[in-house]
Amino acid sequence: MLKIEKINQYYEQSHTLWDLTLDIKKGKCTCIMGRNGVGKTTLGKTIMGLLPLKDGKLIYDGVDIANMSSDKRASLAIGYVPQGREIFSQLTVLENLEIGLLGNRNGLKKVPQKIYELFPVLKEMLKRKGGDLSGGQQQQLAIARALCIEPKLLILDEPSEGIQPNIVQQIGEVIDYLTKEENITVILVEQKLPFARRHGDYFFILDRGAVVASDEIENLNDDIVKKYMSV
Ligand SMILES: Nc1ncnc2c1ncn2[C@@H]1O[C@H](COP(=O)(O)OP(=O)(O)O)[C@@H](O)[C@H]1O
Ligand SMILES: [Mg+2]
């Protein structure tokens, strides 16, 4: 689905990602893990095209997207939910979702009913300002907005961060639905081990901008966790 080949990324002089190579499998949830500051968000932004790529390849569905704009990537059905959600707090829930629809390559004009089935709370809050929602509801809105483009690949950057447990559980159920029922590929940046274990199929661990471990999620053992994830 997505082959990331030897990508390097820099912030000015600072070399942030080092020869990263990852294979993301279709219809599976791949977890990107590792401590704070190791480059997980940088990787997500690079896949989405929010940071220009200096060298390396991003082969998505057989096409090298490395030099495409983020809009172009969205039109190829890549969806992105940034860390910290970044919904429009002055706009209503419905307006936030309609902004997602603008990126829909099939010209969809109405929010699909399915999205309200996945996030019933949003349907009750369509006229509320995004900024009046709880953190968990904003996260759900951010995911719902990304689903409005009808993604085939969805990148979620720490969706469970700072969110109450019942909403984390609902988000987990949505991830399971997307991968198992809709065959959507999910890249999940995640630091919470139980959540990654429950909803992930594969993992890649980054340390200082390099891949240091990767496997099927059931092989994510305590030694690896101790070495690369505990503080
Ligand atoms: N906009 C930026 N400018 C300069 N350095 C940055 C910027 N964003 C992140 N960094 C640095 O790049 C490294 C990786 O950051 P990031 O990708 O956000 O890590 P993670 O998501 O794993 O916490 C960190 O050392 C961070 O300080
Ligand atoms: Mg991050």
Helix content: 25-40%
- Number of discrete helical segments: 9
Q: Strand-residue fraction?
A: 25-35%
Which CATH architecture of the domain at 2-86 and 153-228 is right?
A: 3-Layer(aba) Sandwich
Can you list the strand order of the major beta sheet? 6-7-8-3-9-10
Mean pLDDT: 96
End-to-end separation: 33 Å
Beta strand count? 10
Instruction: Give me the secondary-structure category.
Output: alpha/beta
CATH homologous superfamily grouping of the domain at 2-86 and 153-228: P-loop containing nucleotide triphosphate hydrolases
> How would the global form be characterised?
globular
Bound molecules: adenosine-5'-diphosphate, magnesium ion
Order of helices and strands: EEEHEEHEHHHHEHEHEEH
Give a verbal description of the structure.
- The protein is of the alpha/beta class and 231 residues long.
- It contains 9 helices and 10 strands.
- The protein has a 6-stranded mixed β-sheet with strand order 6-7-8-3-9-10, sandwiched between helices.
- A hairpin with a 2-residue loop joins strand 4 and strand 5.
- Helix 3 runs parallel beside helix 6.
- The mean pLDDT is 96.
- Bound molecules: adenosine-5'-diphosphate and magnesium ion.
- Magnesium ion (MG) binds next to helix 1.
